[in-house]
Amino acid sequence: MTTTVTTAAATAAVTEKTPRPRRTRRRGLAPGKRLPASRLVGPALVVALWAVASAAGQLDPGAIPAPWTVVRTAAHLWDEGTLPTDVLTSLERAGYGFTLGLTAGVTLALAAGLSRIGEALIDGTVQLNRAIPTLGLIPLFILWLGIGETFKIAIIAIVVYIPIYLNLHAALSGIDHRYVELAEVQGLSRVRFIREIVIPGALPGFFVGLRLGVTGSWLSLVVLEQINATSGLGYMMFQAQNYGQTDVILVGLLIYGVFGLVSDSAVRLIERRVLSWRRTLSN
């Protein structure tokens, strides 16, 4: 009995002296929670560096005016009434072109993605169109449609529909064939198959194309509004170039940038709401 007690005491003493292994906390591989207003941090940092460099005299005011100078110029143009007119004109052109491009891109992608005959007729033509520089079509479209507003809207529509078509068609083609077989086994109709299988599977690709299309509408507008235009942000910037008004050019560029950021953020917000059922790194 004494020997047993002594052995137990010795074992307890050894256990107390032996260090317990530390529990290592496994590091998460996910990027973590989304920061509030995270997409504004980068632009705010650029503006802050711009302001600091201007205040320190490191930037030539004639080449790159200070941020406060650009803000004063924008306020002056707004009070004169020219800036609101130019902004509304640019929004109208971009809106018409984007609507036409969105409709064409979705229609052609569905026709090519859901039918082999449609793919044979459409996909090669779209790929050929994609290989041709869209802005290089401007002279031809001027001859066809005139030099008014019609050719500008047509060029914007082409710039918009190509990325929407490419991403939506790729998403439709990338749907797992096992889901098709499962739908056939379950006896789903064509309408239910499209609604329950095709649309949910293609929505992520569609939103990628939609974001690229929105950005493309603003990029093409910069060039198109410098051709036979009497209003618009591009026309305002072209006139400012003739008179060496760098601050006015920066006003136009900043407005284009704000429009692009806001429209992209709006599409992202809609995407998160529509695809809230998905578990991805972004959410």
Structural write-up:
With 283 residues, this protein is mainly alpha-helical. Helix content is 74%, strand content 0%. It contains 11 helices and no strands. It has helices at 2-17, 41-55, 67-80, 82-113, 116-131, 138-145, 149-173, 177-186, 190-224, 233-242, 246-274. It starts with a helix and ends in a 9-residue tail after the last helix.
In brief:
This protein has 283 residues and is an all-alpha fold.
Secondary structure layout:
Blueprint: H1 2-17, H2 41-55, H3 67-80, H4 82-113, H5 116-131, H6 138-145, H7 149-173, H8 177-186, H9 190-224, H10 233-242, H11 246-274
Helix pairs in contact: 3-11, 4-5, 4-7, 4-9, 4-10, 6-7, 7-9, 9-11, 10-11
Task: Record keyword descriptors for this entry.
283 residues; mainly alpha; 11 helices; disordered N terminus
Biggest sheet character: none
Please tell me the overall pLDDT. Answer: 85
Radius of gyration: 29 Å
Total DSSP E strands: 0
Report helical residue fraction: over 70%
Number of helices: 11
In whole angstroms, the N-to-C terminal distance is 64 Å
